[in-house]
Write a structure and sequence with these properties.
The complex is a heterodimer of chains A (about 300) and B (about 270). Chain A is mainly alpha-helical and about 300 residues long. Chain A contains eleven helices and two strands. A two-stranded antiparallel sheet of chain A has the order 1-2. Chain B is mainly α and about 270 residues long. The chains are: A mainly alpha (about 300), B mainly alpha (about 270). At the A-B interface, helix 2, helix 3, helix 5, helix 6 and helix 7 of A face helix 1, helix 2, helix 3, helix 5 and helix 6 of B.
Chain lengths: ~300, ~270
């Protein structure tokens, strides 16, 4: 058990929670929510660290890349608060641990937040509000505003607290190599998630057509020979299920061919290329602007 | 319909709030059902704007910022179409033409979002400098500047529409080439790689690269959700730790830590 000389009070945690409402304010293409994450933690960091060097290195480590669903950042903030609190009290927690914990949590959490909030809660609340509003009922917008914010605010506060309590537990036991294990486990989990995210979220699509083959007469649906009306639709669906093509030609794009190797390969190569450029000390801003130019030019040339 | 000075100021404040929320995604002032209604409220056009908001909300239900992608801009769409509806002075009859202009505006708003998000990259570099000095105040200041920039993103176009009227807006939208908007959104898909490249550069070591590869390959299975992938990643990490600790002998046994780590999830649930 670490002897906690400096502890974060509920008031400090409330201040962090309030600031996390502005998490995405400085969302940027280089490190995404990093500015907001550091901004949210400031009330806690101010209390925990008094020396200038400590403050500087704390800010620096929280200005690293971060991105998740804006509401699911709260549990990550909670765990981070606990880790920083212990670090400030002398626990041997290094930057890689904190970074690994953050990165390891952000991917799966985004995977929770998007379907829950954007595709479930919002359509339900928004749909109800919209139908009331369309009928000229002023309760529509009021219900939306109150219900949405109530759910959101409660969720953010309680998950931040949950994260804070879970985080303290991690560092309570400093004997053994639990902490070392967490460091290693976090970076394993982090790299695993990064691999998945590069595959899912870096989108590179090549559109050129590499081949356009006329199919064998038996391999596609002959639309002109189908029966009329619903019966024809039934026949067409049955034939498609049996593996017949919808068109007389098989069009293969460059992307189809690349996907045969492994989907997402181009995104991976792009990421590796960016890593190489960054190691060569090329400024991320130049890379970002360059990629936008590349996107427009390749689109105009019909490559993407 | 002419607006008086107070009404114009209130509309601009609402536009500013909507712009902020368009990126913050928290209080949801930018949602059509709220933004349009507020503009209707301050301009004495409550009923038509409320119905406009409801109709736009139905269209915008599925728009969401996912990952690094930006959805069509509900903030600009709702603010601009509500202003156009009010200025047109046709009341309910003007709703459908206001909606017709709102959707292309939502797409055009993407360009402004991309612009501001790129400018914000400059801001976090200023924050980096402030961090070196351990200067909390400066970071607070620039975070607020960034948020205000998002507000102006909508407030300035709203002001322009108030000054020049709705007609030139329609003409301008007709001028914007689709190759530029499409190309920029393709570019938006590419730049995500830069952020990942930075974290990987920081975390990578010989020991953990294989896990990156496994994650990448498993992600090609589209049926696996991110939560599923998270569970696999966590299990792999636990397995790896358990196996490598066994090889090192039972060096982690001193200190009686096992009581605490026996069932960490259960402990957390029990205590909460």
């Amino acid at each position: 058990m670490v002897d906690k000389k400096i502890a974060l009070t509920k008031k400090d945690r409330l201040a962090v929670w309030w600031r996390s409402n502005f998490l995405q304010g400085s969302w940027n293409y280089e490190r995404m929510q990093n500015g907001g994450f550091a901004f949210s933690l400031i009330p806690a960091l101010k209390k925990l660290y008094s020396k200038k060097e400590d403050r500087a290195s704390a800010l620096k480590r929280h200005l690293e890349f971060f991105n998740t669903h804006p509401y699911l950042a709260s549990p990550v903030l909670g765990v981070t608060l606990a880790l920083e609190e212990d670090k400030a009290n002398g626990a041997p927690i290094d930057e890689v641990t904190i970074q690994g914990v953050k990165v390891g949590m952000m991917g799966p959490f985004a995977g929770i937040g998007d379907p829950v909030f954007w595709f479930t809660v919002k359509p339900i609340v928004g749909g109800l509000a919209a139908s009331l509003a369309m009928a000229g009922n002023i309760m529509g917008p009021i219900i939306y505003f109150v219900v949405w914010n109530l759910i959101r605010i409660m969720f953010m506060w309680y998950t931040q607290e949950l994260g804070y309590k879970a985080g303290s537990k991690i560092t309570d036991n400093l004997s053994g190599n639990l902490l070392q294990n967490i460091t290693k486990g976090a970076s394993i989990m982090g790299m695993f998630i990064l691999g998945s995210l590069v595959n899912r979220w870096v989108t590179v699509k090549f559109t050129p057509v590499v081949s356009n083959v006329k199919l064998d007469g038996k391999a596609y649906i002959h639309w002109d020979q189908l029966a009329h009306g619903a019966k024809g639709i039934q026949q067409a669906l049955l034939q498609q299920k049996a593996g017949l093509s919808l068109t007389a030609h098989k069009v293969t794009t460059l992307q189809d061919n690349l996907d045969l190797l492994i989907p997402g390969l181009a995104g991976l190569l792009l990421t590796l290329f960016c890593m190489w450029l960054l190691k060569k000390k090329v400024s991320p801003i130049i890379i970002i602007l360059g990629l936008f130019v590349v996107g427009v030019v390749l689109h105009v040339l019909h490559v993407m | 319909m002419q607006l008086n000075l107070i009404q114009i100021i209130l509309v601009l404040i609402i536009a500013f709030l909507a712009g902020m929320e368009g990126i913050l995604d928290q209080f949801h002032f930018h949602q059509p059902v709220i933004a349009c209604t507020l503009i209707g409220l301050v301009t004495n056009n409550l009923m038509p704007c409320l119905i406009l908001g409801g109709t736009l909300e139905m269209i915008a239900l599925g728009w969401a910022n996912i990952g690094a992608a930006v959805a069509p801009d509900a903030a600009l769409a709702s603010v601009a179409s509500a202003i156009i509806l009010v200025l047109g002075g046709q009341g309910r009859a003007g709703i459908s033409s206001a909606i017709a202009i709102a959707v292309p505006l939502a797409v055009a708003g993407l360009l402004l979002t991309i612009l501001v998000r790129t400018l914000a990259t400059g801001i976090v570099h200023i924050m980096d400098a402030a961090a070196k000095e351990g200067n909390f105040k400066k970071i607070d200041f620039w975070q607020i500047v960034a948020i205000c920039m998002q507000g102006l993103r909508i407030a300035i176009p709203a002001g322009l529409i108030l000054i020049i009227g709705p007609k030139p807006v329609k003409e301008f939208l007709g001028l914007m080439p689709s190759w530029l908007t499409d190309g920029l959104s393709i570019g938006g898909g590419l730049v995500v790689a830069v952020g990942y490249a930075m974290v990987i550069n920081m975390m990578a070591s010989r020991e953990v690269w294989p896990f990156f590869a496994i994650g990448f390959v498993l992600a090609t299975i589209q049926d696996l959700t991110l939560i599923g992938l998270g569970a696999i990643g966590l299990s792999l990490a636990l397995l790896y730790l358990a196996l490598s600790n066994n090889n090192n002998g039972n060096s982690d046994d001193h200190g009686g830590g096992h009581a605490n780590i026996g069932d960490p999830v259960g402990d957390i649930i029990d205590d909460y």
